[in-house]
Amino acid sequence: MLNLKKSIVGVLALTTFALSSSIALSASCPKTGGVLKYGVKAEPPTYDMHGTNSYAVNHFVAQHYSTLLTFDWDKFPKLEGDVADSWNQSSDGLTYTFKIKKGIKFHDGTPLTSADVKASYDRLKSPPKGVISVRKALFSAIQSISTPDSDTVVFKLSKPDAFMMSGFASPFNAIYSAKDIAKDPKFHIKNINGTGPYKFAGHKSGEAWKAVRYDGFHHGDNCLDATEGYRIKKLGEPLIGGQIDAEWRGTAPPERIMLKKEMGDKVTFQAKTLMTAWVVSLNSKTKAFQNQKVRQALNMCIDRHAGLKTLAKITFVAPRPSGFLLYGTEYALPDEELFQIPGFTKDIASSRKKAMKMLKEAGADGLEFTYSNRAVSHPYDHIAIWLMSEWKKCGLKPKMITNPTSKFVKIRREGGFDATIDWAPSFLPDPTLMHFKYISADRTASNYSKSTDRELDRLFDAQAGETDVAKRKAIVHEFEKKALISSWVLPVTYTDRVIALNSKVKGYKIAFSHILNNTWRGVYLD
Amino acid sequence: MSTESSISLTLKQPSKRTFLDFIKQQPLGFIGLVLIVIMFTCAIFAPQVAPYNPEDIDFEASPALGGGEPSWEHLLGGDAFGRDILSRLIYGARTALSIGFFSAMLGCTLGAIIGTTSAYFGGKVDLIIQRLIDLMLSFPIVVLAIVVIAIFPKTVVAGIDVNVIIAIAIPFTPKVARVIRAQALTLVTLPYIDAAKAAGFSSKRIIFRHLIPNVSAPFLIMLTAFIGQAILLEASLSYLGLGVVEPTPSWGLMLSGVNSDYYRTAPWMIIYPGVAVSIAVFSFNLLGDSLRDWLDPKLKL
Amino acid sequence: MLKYALKRILLMFPTLIAVAVIVFLVLRVVPGDIVELKLTAEGGEVTLEQIEEEKTRLGLNDPMHIQFYKYMTGIPRGDLGISLWTERPVADEISARIGLSFELAILSTILAVLIAFPLGTLSALFRGTGLDYVIRIITIGGIAVPSFWLGMLLIMLVLSFGKLPPLGTVSLFVDPLTNFNQMIWPAISVGYRYTSVVARILRSSILEVLSEDYIRTARAKGLFERVVIVKHGMRNALLPTITVIGLEFAFLLGGLVVTESVFNLNGIGKLFIDSVVRNDLNLLQGLVLTVATSFVFVNLIVDLCYAALDPRIRYQS
Questions:
Q1: Which residues on chain B are in Cβ contact (under 8 Å) with C276?
Q2: In this prediction, what percent of chain A has a pLDDT beyond 70?
Q3: Considering the entire predicted model, what is its pTM?
């Protein structure tokens, strides 16, 4: 009797448990199974997320790691915890305390504790010899990291930093295992051991990057059995021919037309503006460009309104003008103010007339100058060809010099150009991230104009430490206006990112950058 | 008995080797020549022949905006930027022929000089030069060309990419040197060379005035063959992004780069440049084959 | 024969050493900077010191003679240095891919020879007829049509009928059908030219041989036409043909470079282009050395075949 009752209770309990967990499972994974085949247009130079900003590394590796925080993709840029369970910030903004979720294990079985978080951020902030941390400067405000117990991490800052919190959500700031780092600080350059949804299953050079589902994943929404990443050169044929089902960087408009034509409703597109800004940097050593009027004239010859609309149809640039900050985001200059600045006005004819007058007065009409271009079709060649024709309309004589990337970056750093195409990648519309490039050259290596402007530096520092949103906006707007008028760097536009997925790939939520949301949590095949 | 013969012996004139005879005996070669002349005319008189400036953008004529199909305005259609394809083909002839001609000329001339010099001096000099030639022949043409491209920075003189010319010329040199050397070897033992040496003529004079003119047959044949090769090589390099780059019009470049997304929506964009390359190489091959038949059918090349 | 063979084999070694030296010297002159490319191409704050540190770590700042010493002593051991991009041994990167390129080369050669021999022979035997003209046009097409263009057209063709074969090399021994599917189109694309050249040389060699005196003698003797051609004609026509097959192998390798890019195959041709674009000097060095060495070997084999078929060659040198 007793046994029967017990067994009935047991069966009921089991059934309830099974039902509830399957409900929980179906909540995060409508369907499980299948292999996601995706393509990446570049080769990863390293496996170490700390040491690169390359999207190639991100697309292959992000699935293997977790970060401290991540974004709520539906309510971007709202933050939610990845390995962090809860967190708070002290009222003076100098102390951040994180509580780590319990029970997270690395792919090799070892548990994740606060020590691992500390070790990872130590590595990011002060990389040991032989290790590169490309975002080192962003962590300079961190004074110390302490671990009072195995699931608490405390960051102490030396000064308030408006950007720091979002930085914890960057997919590149992966949490590594402390013991791996201790064994060999360079371990992660060639090895992968993380806590992410998919476990690394091998990568033969030039062949597929294989990964399988990690059953111990702490969020449980890894729905695919496996993923396979391939290096591709072009997106169109592989997608049509079934060789891949997804690609995360983006398609150009003509590719989209072709895909739609060939695949009909077997292809779906998702669009979101990508936070990579395309700009032209002018060399401060070029004599003609030392005259601000000449620089402004170059800006004013570009027909941003009509021209970008057309350019956006042949390559993946955004169809409208933008300042240094992405239009429509919290800190950007409102359009009424932006369209007053020379170069952004709607009347291109009078703008060009004024520009030609300014050039003549400066003795630079018919100016010949070199434009250094990167030998990549989208969007570099496209932007270059378009800009050449825009400048020619003002009587200028630009000469386009195209070089493969390795030579191009060298020329850019050495200043072997009069004007060069340039870009500012970011994943957040935060002014600290986006304006960093435009401060004086002795403070940032990415100012290829090598210009100096102490006023801009002052404004930048002011906004970086200002936590009151309204006050920060005012400072940021001043910075934008000043930089745009100074015209050492001419903004072209942002990037229109449209990704193409085979319709069987579901559950993917596109974000503001091609390096975000590539852990593929919640992605399933149907 | 009468010794008069009913057979009259008529003196047969030696066959005249004029241009008209060439046309009669080598019709295919003549066709090749005609095509080549047409291409050269296009290339030289490009600004007059081409309907548009090859760099003029016209977005309305771009397939990305729905236009670009071949029409009366744009006989062969428009490319990604709406630039007229026919005009770009014509200017592309300029790129192809100038690079093709100059690199073949450079390579063949260098090869001829090296080969003849090697044959003339013989002995140790010959041995060393032969080894060097063998060494250079250890590398496939494309590989050698790409390596040279990697080394030489892009140098543009009068609108022509000189570094591409050098890159293509260098792989040809050893091939020509080897053949010309073989030919020159048969000449060096001739008595009139001995006579020239005895007369005290300088080596330089003997090589340039007595030997080289007599290797002109294989030289010409190789030259025409290599111009065709060079055009093909330039197209391949530009396709790979290692040769000519935007905005210079080049047939190979028109098949890649900004035009590569339009295969299926605007197939004319990749058909015409490919046809252009094929015709160009084809005509040089026709001419080369016919020259070989005409000048010396027994020539083992 | 043996003496000749030994002599040629011995001569190979100084050639190979010279090749290695030249490859090293030439590649030192390549401009552009891979470290900068790796670190700064996607944006980010990288200082000059960090770049120099990386360079030193990768051995790029070692003095020339040390680099040369490491290089030359490494070769006999099979150590070709490490790729500056992936930091994996160059020998590994190459060996992972050489199988595919080798298979493609062999497949193209087999295809070429299988098709070229009947084409060339028919064209010669039925000289002047319509068949001859058709074949000649087909073969001239092979020399004139750019192989990458042909490749593009073939891809378009395949796509209009169905799916493309899967990415990722499938071994011939694991799944022959998929492997064949992956290889056949690039093989045709590369092989077309090869076929044409061989067919043409075979045709002209046969024609030349058929007009020789000894053939007339054989015919006068009353031997069957077929015997005449096969026994006397073919053997002598083979000589220049085999030379050309060997010489054209160079074009094949070159053709592989472009074709692998068009078809997105993971072979050493594509690796070569990648290493040039990225300035991966060590990898480029290893690749050029590998290609040149295999080339020297192929030349050797061709020379030996040639000598075996034509005794005059053996006694000449």
A1: 146-147, 149-150, 242
A2: 95
A3: 0.81
